[in-house]
Amino acid sequence: MKTAAVIGAGIAGIASAIRLAVKGYSVDVFEANDYPGGKLSAFDLTTERGSYRFDAGPSLFTMPHLVDELFQLAGRQPADYFNYIRLDETCRYFWDDATRLTAWADHTRFGQEVESVLGEPAGHLLDHLRDSALKYEVTEKLFLHRSLHKISTWMNRDALRGYLNLPRLGVFSTMNKANEGRFRHPKLVQLFNRYATYNGSDPYQTPATLNIIPHLEYNIGAFFPVQGMVSITGSLVRLAEDLGVRFHYRARVSQLVTKGTRVLGVQLAGEDLPRPYTLVVSNMDVVSTFRKLLPNARQPERILRQPKSSSGLIFYWGIRREFAELGLHNIFFSNNYRAEFAELFGQNQLYSDPTIYLNITSKHKADDAPPGCENWFILLNAPNNTGQDWDTIISRARQDVIRKLSHNLGVDVGPLIETEAVLDPRSIEARTSSSQGALYGNSSNNRFAAFLRHANFSHEFRNLYFVGGSVHPGGGIPLCLLSAKIMTDLVNEQASQ
């Protein structure tokens, strides 16, 4: 019987377990926490008014077909486990000078909005979205569905198409330069610069290739799981269990037992004997995997020591009021975006006028907040954890957020906060083993960043594989799901040799 151990029940670990179970493996998933999902989890804050429910981490759902694919691989109907809707609007944008703009899913309507509010020709927007689609089509099969660390990836028709389109991919420019060349209005430049934050990068440093990201949101679409983001986790765990996968919670792996070029098994904290497995998949951060589980193995220092992506500071607020001008996704922009990123990546500090992302799931799922109230998920781009005085940073940031939101909404937000929880880079690091609390593994602030992520396989151990946001192809739900697909393809490839 082929057996597999998956270390970590993050979304990539769960997807890996499903794919391996479909291939006939007997799979055990070991999770140090007492819940699955990693960052893709949820919790409640209860008050006298009732309960506020919060998705703890990711709040934007794109590329739902990657979730559906897992059910289809298992011969199941996705709708029997998981349902979602396509959003009519992707985000509402706010600036301190009272400018407000809604990004509609319908391109024509979005273009009209851009012309009406900013005076930017709609054609500029439509050209940008077409260019984003082209970049994605050229890079998808080459970079997102294959290992970059296999020679076969670079010797096929998809690779040839990539070489021929290299000048159009923006490898030698930055996202900001490309957007300034496309748009006249600085607010629209800022709007599209923000997509660098989707993998924790700086738009003034990261390659313009990352202008593929808007394609996911505007051309494929933004979606909302009808039972909240955590239902992605719940539905996939249910599918995995239906396939015979065994989840072990509060089961911390302390070591990988190796001999020669193979991993013999996993050693759990508190157990005397290791558990033997045919193959092992680590969904643990790659830095923690090597430093903690493989301290005697060759350490890929060049990759492990790469600068990390940004992290996040999250306030979860129960608000005892509803705001009609707010939607599911809302952005309140900084007045000096360049200064914000210079502070974030240059000084490892939080800017005093931070850009605020505000997510309110009760707009689509009313029982996420008591009647007449809203559940506010507030995310600030934050530096990764390098030992800053986080208590002071959090206290100051809280006041900055209240000030900025109060100014934009015309009401003092502070007294409306009925209950609160906070997640900062320290707690992200502790709960998820993410190195320095980075949300997306290594930084993407240079043109070679894609090659500075660890491979989905081990160069030293033939039966050890890696998935999740710290390895190829990167962080975020879609890329984590694709890392599981790449891993399984590599397992199949090795089995056929």
Mean of residue pLDDT values: 93
Strand percentage lies at: 15-25%
Low-confidence stretches: none
Helix content: 25-40%
* Measured distance between first and last alpha carbons: 19 Å
- Count of helical regions: 15
General form: globular
Q: How would you sum up this structure in a few lines?
A:
The chain has helices at residues 11-22, 65-73, 107-118, 122-144, 157-164, 175-182, 186-193, 213-220, 230-242, 286-293, 301-304, 337-346, 390-409, 425-432, 477-495; strands at 3-7, 26-31, 42-46, 51-55, 61-62, 84-86, 89-94, 100-104, 222-225, 246-249, 253-259, 262-268, 275-276, 279-282, 311-319, 329-332, 356-359, 374-382, 417-423, 464-466. It has 497 residues and is α/β, with parallel strands linked by helices. 50% of the residues are buried.
Descriptive account of the structure:
The protein is built from 15 helices and 20 strands. The chain has helices spanning about 10-20, 65-75, 105-120, 120-145, 155-165, 175-180, 185-195, 215-220, 230-240, 285-295, 300-305, 335-345, 390-410, 425-430, 475-495, and strands at about 5, 25-30, 40-45, 50-55, 60, 85, 90-95, 100-105, 220-225, 245-250, 255-260, 260-270, 275, 280, 310-320, 330, 355-360, 375-380, 415-425, 465. The strands form 5 sheets. Strands 8-7-16-17-18-15-19 form a 7-stranded mixed β-sheet. The protein has a 5-stranded parallel β-sheet with strand order 10-2-1-14-20, with helices on one face. A hairpin with a 2-residue loop joins strand 11 and strand 12. Helix 1 runs parallel beside helix 9, helix 1 runs parallel beside helix 15 and helix 4 crosses helix 8.
